[in-house]
Task: structure prediction
Amino acid sequence: MCGATRGGPSVEGIDVAKETVIQGVVVRDGEPVSTGYARLLDSGGDFTAEVPLSATGQFRFFARPGEWTVRALVPGATGERKVVARQGEPVDTQVDVAA
Amino acid sequence: MSRETALVNATWVEEHAGDPKVVLVEVDEDVSAYDRGHIPGAVRLDWKSELQDPVIRDFVNKEQFEKLLSDKGIANDDTVVLYGGNNNWFAAYAYWYFVLYSHPQVRLLDGGRKKWELDGRELTAEVTPRPATSYTAAEARTDIRAFRDEVIAAIGEKNLVDVRSPDEFSGRLLAPAHLPQEQSQRPGHVPTAKNIPWARTANEDGTFRSNDELTALYSEAGVDLTKDTIAYCRIGERSAHTWFALHELLGLANVKNYDGSWTEYGSLVGVPIEKGA
Result:
């Protein structure tokens, strides 16, 4: 989508000092994907949460400090990325998906 | 109830697309999802503004449920097919309401909105109006709903299934990881509860695991499926999903959903709480 901001949604209105935010954008062939889901898996691979992607391919989770995997499901493709979350420092990531 | 009568698949929905006695109902956590696109002909139920009493903490009563379904154009003899995002999380919660008020024919679309979308099936933003009906509900059933005193009495006696994430169960988080952690009540879980996160009942595409897999999941976690079971989560939605798996798919009779769940239990004065895994 032309003109879309890279990375996750704006953190305006969120108490970032208190929260442990993992957010980002799901990308296919260099462009954000508007239809699909982001899943947050814990360090053991267990499902923790799932959110639909925004129209600009973005997602956000409130987690706790530690290692996580963001797994993206979009029509005909999947992708995942490991992240390390810290309180007070929102993680902004990009998950690339491919068939 | 059994798997064959509780679930339908996308093919079934497409085959019944023109059937006026089949009503598709979308229920999402993200209530704006319906506006962006829904299965053609589907009506929307808003779990927060339409399924909860606006003043007291309780779900809608019999009269409110009757008015809601009448306004939505749902009749007593309609087959209601519920679906939604996040593995049918809120659709399963609405399903529990329909059973609670004894709607005769209610189903879940296996895989919900997610599988429908990922399979590239049709969605539309167009709203199809349905003429109002005069819906009549039965008195709310109490055999599938647990209240707090029953949960306390069940400690060490009945199966208590905590379906929240391991981090919520152990007390490290107070809410699911996609929601702000603003709650102030005590973290932890009901003593003797087993932690079987709700989403383990579902495959990645949102469809339910097979009955054999579900039985193994609970048995291996130490749940004696011959005993009575109470499922709970934070506010009763995720545990409605587990209630569906146990009561509707496995056909177990004595399974209740504790919709007060952790936001009630974790705020009670003097009740026992355990922390840690």
In short: The mean pLDDT of chain B is 93.
